[in-house]
Structure formats: C-alpha cells, structure tokens
Design brief:
globular; three-stranded antiparallel sheet; single chain; di-copper center containing domain from catechol oxidase; Hemocyanin, N-terminal domain
C-alpha cells in the first residue's frame, strides 16, 4: 500500500494555497486527465457518488468558486457532502487523492476544504494522516480584517511582514476581557474539528456508527461553557447568563472579520430583540420546540415518530436529548422536536439582516470556525446547557453505594510545580490569506497572537488499594471554582456544574500503596500544538525522500482543547479552586477491551476514540453530572477526595 508519508504529502499538496490552482504535476494530471466515467468509478461504490457529483458539475449547478460557504445552508451542505460521499466510498488511496484533485479544481474552495477534512478524519484510508491547522488553510475565519488588509498590502508591496493581531473590541466592552478565550485560534480549531468528528449530518451508511454522539454533544459544549465561566471568574466577571427568545440579546457584536469572498461578517447592536428570520424560523416556533423538549424532560420520556414513548429517566436519556436538541441525524421525531440548537445558530447569525433585505453574508454564529467569537455563542450554549441540566437534575443523586470503590482510598493529592498561567506570543502563517493573482510573488506574511498558556505540572496521587488483588482504576480529575465573582462560595450542588474536566485515565493499582504520577501534557482532554503546514511538508517530504516512516502520531487528532488552555487563567494573586480526584472501578466502567486501556492516550475524554465505542462506560461528567443535595455522600467515600489549589496568572512569563 501507499505509505503514510506519501499520503501526508498528497494531503499537504491538496491543501496548499487552496484559492489557487493545483501546482504539483501528479495532482494536476489527475485533475485534468483523469477520466471520471471510466477509471475513477472503478475505485468507488460503483461510481454512484461520482456520477451524481459529475452531473452537478456538468449542469453547472454547484456553488461557484470564490464564494463563502456555510454548512448551515442546505444546498451548500448537500454539495459538500456529495464530494465527501465520493471520498468516503473510495477503496484505494489512488481513488481518494485523484478524486480530491479532480474536484478541487471544480468545486467551491470552502466546500472542498470541508469535504476533504471530514473525509480524512473518517476514512480508514487516511488514518495517521495529520491535518494542518485550519487557521493556516482558511485564515480569514481565524483572524481579523485589519490583519487581512495588512497581509494584502505586504504582498502588493512585496514587503514581508509579521502583524500583531489584537482581540476584537475595546476596553469599553467588558466582554473584551475574555475575548482571548472565544477568539483563541486553537480553541476554534478544537470546536470546528469536534463538529467534523461528530457531524450533525452523519449517517451510519457512511461506514460506522458514532457512539454516544448526543451525549458527547452535551458534554463538549457543557465543558466549553464551564471553561468560559471559569475564564470570566478569573477576570472578575460573573458567570454567563442564558439567552432567551423573549428577552433581548444583551451583547451586540462587531466581528471585525471579513470573508475571503463576500464581504464583512455582519455586526449586531446591543440589546436587540430576537427577530423572525425569513426562510429559517420564527421566534414563536423556537419557543414551541423548547416547550416540547422541556415537557419531555418533565415527563421523563420522549415520543418517537410512531407515537411511542422512549424512557429517558436513565443513563441513555442524555444521548437521546443530545441528538434531539442539536439535532443530529440520530434524532428522534424531527418533525416534532425540530432542530433547536442548529436553528438557533442560524437565527443568531442572521439577526443583522433577518429579512435578507441587505443581502448580507451569514454571521459568525453560522460557522463553527468563528462561532465562539460572538458572546451570544456562550449565552446560547448556556441556554442549551440549562435544558440538559434540567434533565440531569431529574435523575436521582448517586448513592454512597454507587460511588464507592471498595478497598480503594485516595490518601493524598499533590501537585508538583505551580499552577501558573501566562500569555505567550504565537506566530502563524498567513500565506493562504492572499491570492497569487497577477503573478505577484509570495512574500513571508504571518500573524502574531497572544495565547494563554501555563507551566507544565504533574499530579502525584497516593492511592491505597486494600483489596487482595490488583485493580484497574479510572482516575477522573476535575478543577472546580470555589466562589462566584463576589466571593460568595458555591455550594457543592452549584459548584459541580462549573467544574472543568482536566483529565481522565486508567491505571492498575497494585495491592498496598500506589503513587500515581500523571503529567499535565498527557491529559486526555487536550491536544498538543499542531505542526504547521510548512512543518508537515518538511517532515513528509523528508520521509518520502528517505523512504522512512513518518512519526506524527501525537498530532493525529486536532479535536481536543489545546493543552496550553488546560487551566483557566486564574488571578495574579492566585484564584481558589477545588481539585477533585475520583477513582472508580476501571473493570466496570471501561469499554474498550480491544484497546490497551492504559495507553489510550489521545483525546478521548471529549472526542472519543475514532471508530470505537467511547472508552468510559460511565455517564460523561461522572460523578458530578447529577445533583448533590448532600455533600456528605462525597465526603464519606474514600475513593473521592479533593484538595484546594490556587491558579496564578503571571503577566510576565
Ligand atoms: Cu458547537 Cu453550537 O454546537 O456550536
């Protein structure tokens, strides 16, 4: 077969300068001479997907090149999925890469990038291929207007430049204090990639079933909300309030962001009332959907298409609700429950031009790459999260017996190294932001951003195993804020909903005392900094040339919170947190017998393991996902312990 290095090289070449024509002779040939009716079809599902896409090409029905692309526009999405369909049905790399080359020259660039990314993520043919960070491929969606202007000027005047990118807004806007979070390029890559790993349009006919997809939707966005709130508390702000259809959208937003083609992202003033969006939905419809979902939660069952009740008062309930609320193709009774969350994104994205009077392009809320820039994103997701909470709060609290892990006791939790955050400068390439038109030569252009980072640290956890045999333990670590913005301490039941999951992993515990050591860099919630396209090219070229293996395993997934954002910012004088370690029975709550559970690594806590069941059998967020009316239950079990820590923020590193 084709080596991973060669595949990596092909993907690099396909993504290089996506607004220009292909440059690499092999691909150019595939794109021009490849016979779509003959050769191409041999390698796919009998050619069905290709024939469909080809006929759209011939009839010139596809979205033009040099136009914005939105996954939430039905027809635009269908077209992108036609290309995805072709790629995912390939049985050989040759088919994959040649089709990609062929259609790269014929479909819209945004659709091409989307289809290729999702196909690489989900196709077995592309396993071990590392996708370059999207902020380099489509920089417009990750940087602002000002930087783009400067990049063009640099190119036209042939003057290399490195431009400092500042966060949107001014000091007058309180929300700007936490813009570093919503505008973080790595966080945005995580968010958009999560939605590529778990597309709402996914159907099992594409090749595999995605385990606990609805629950993951809940958990990942719950964690994004919790993290956002912790950043706010770090900056003397209150936790974010939910959005509501009948109230004003308090925060306006001026994105200062521009499409590569199609003008600026529209703004929204403060305190406007929700408007019906022509062709999308009326506010009233949204309220009706919400009521139906809340009714289902109150009754403890949802109603399927046949009118049958499905019990949700159990651990699977959250998965049903996640699929319904998002909604995904795994949803139940779309007719009745609609698509509350997805429609809300579109509606928020169009509030600047709800009647389509001004022909404005969609707002930032309509793209997963840009959505978190808008403060209304976190209000929307708090609203969604509160609906999920209503369900979780209906389930009975865990009992002492359920929480206990007999014979296992956490004796000590120690942190080696300080929990200290700081801002650092990071540079990324902007070469894709500008065209190669007019035969103007490329010059070096890049953006400099401030990013949150922290010093590495290590957990040393002393755990006794008083059983007569070794046991497998699941170790779950959470960081929880202790007080609100006024210093008023949270009760356990309030605080648990704001906890950040910082790690989850498995360890064998020998009989007697164990010291479990775990480095912050190994967190299963996070991913390391991805290599740039340039690095990927250098590494892949060298490996192909030298006929060597390409070792980039640790970068295989870009779904996962950037490791540098593992900790919330904290405060210069130290911010108080509760660090909780829950040690539970790994034999009982681990799913993947086919995998060496202690070595799962990667980023399974928020992103699962591609093509496998979710490794942890417990509800996501366990044991903090349910009400804690009586904290003594937690205090009495020996396998759950916590300690107080402080997170310091240093302006100087
Ligand atoms: Cu990720 Cu709303 O689901 O942006």
């Amino acid at each position: 077969g084709v080596s991973v290095a060669k595949k990596q090289q092909d993907i690099n070449h396909l993504l290089e300068k996506i607004y220009d024509r292909l440059r690499h002779p092999e691909l150019v040939e595939a794109a021009t001479t490849f016979d779509p009716e003959g050769d191409l079809t041999m390698y796919t599902d009998g050619g069905e997907a290709v024939r469909r896409l080809m006929s759209e090409v011939h009839q010139q029905r596809l979205l033009q090149k040099h136009h914005w692309f939105s996954l939430f526009q039905e027809r635009q999405r269908e077209e992108a999925l036609m290309l995805f369909d072709v790629l995912i049905h390939c049985n050989s790399w040759r088919c994959f890469v040649n089709n990609a080359a062929y259609f790269r020259e014929r479909v819209n660039e945004g659709q091409f990038v989307y289809a290729l990314y999702v196909a690489v993520i989900h196709s077995d043919l592309a396993s071990h291929v590392v996708l370059p960070p999207l902020y380099e491929i489509t920089p417009h969606l990750f940087t602002n207007n000002e930087i783009i202007q400067k990049a063009y000027t640099a190119k036209m005047t042939q003057t290399p430049g490195r431009f400092n990118m500042s966060f949107t807004g001014s000091q007058k806007n309180r929300e700007q204090r936490i813009a570093y979070f919503g505008e973080d390029i790595g966080l945005n890559v995580h968010h958009v990639t999560w939605h590529m790993d778990f597309p709402f349009w996914w159907q099992d006919s594409y090749g595999h079933h995605i385990d606990r997809k609805g629950e993951l939707f809940f958990w990942v966005h719950h964690q994004l909300s919790a993290r956002f709130d912790n950043e706010r508390l770090s900056n003397w702000m209150n936790v974010v309030d939910e959005l509501h259809w009948e109230e004003v959208i308090s925060e306006g937003f001026a994105p200062h962001t521009i499409y590569k083609f199609g003008g600026e992202f529209p703004s929204r003033p403060d305190n406007i009332h929700f408007q019906d969006v022509v062709g999308v939905a009326n506010v009233r419809d949204m309220i009706i959907l919400e009521r139906r979902i809340r009714d289902a939660i109150a009754h403890g069952y949802v109603i399927d298409e046949e009118g049958q009740q499905i019990d949700i008062m159990n651990e699977q309930g959250i998965d049903y609700l996640g699929n319904i609320i998002e909604s995904s193709m795994y949803t139940t009774n779309l007719q009745y429950y609609g698509s509350l969350h997805n429609t809300a994104h579109i509606m928020l994205g169009r509030q600047g031009d709800p009647k389509g009077k001004y022909n404005l392009p969609p707002g930032v809320m309509e793209h997963f790459e840009t959505a978190t820039r808008d403060p209304s994103f976190f209000r929307l997701h708090k609203y969604i999260d509160n609906i999920f909470k209503e369900h979780k709060d209906n389930l009975s609290p865990y009992t002492w017996e359920e929480l206990e892990f007999p014979g296992v006791a956490v004796r000590e939790i120690e942190i080696e190294g300080e929990l200290k955050t700081y801002f650092e400068q990071f540079e990324f390439n902007l070469i894709n932001a500008v065209d190669r038109s007019n035969n103007v030569e490329d010059v070096e252009i890049s953006a400099n951003v401030n990013r949150l980072n922290h010093q590495d640290f290590t957990y040393n956890i002393i755990i006794n195993n008083d059983n007569e045999v070794d046991v497998l333990a699941t170790i779950r670590i959470f960081l929880c804020p202790r007080a609100d913005e006024n210093g008023l301490e949270f009760t356990w039941d309030e605080g648990r909903w704001h906890c950040i999951e910082t790690d989850k992993f498995w360890r064998k515990l020998s009989v007697g005392e164990n010291t479990v050591t775990r480095h912050s860099t190994d967190s299963s919630v996070t991913v390391p900094d991805p290599p740039s396209l340039e690095t990927l090219q250098r590494r892949a070229d060298a490996a192909v040339e030298g006929d060597q293996e390409l070792h980039l395993e640790e970068y295989e997934r870009s779904c996962g919170i950037p490791n540098r954002m593992l900790l919330p910012k904290g405060k210069s004088e130290g911010m108080d947190f509760l660090l909780m370690v829950a040690v539970t029975d790994g034999e009982m709550d681990t799913n993947n017998d086919q995998l060496d559970v202690t070595e799962l690594g990667g980023t399974h806590a928020h992103c699962g393991v591609r093509g496998h069941t979710f490794p942890d059998r417990r509800p996501m967020g366990y044991p903090l996902d349910r009400r804690i009316p009586d904290k003594r239950v937690f205090e009495q079990v020996t396998n759950i312990e916590s300690t107080f820590v402080k997170v310091f923020h240093n302006t100087q590193h």
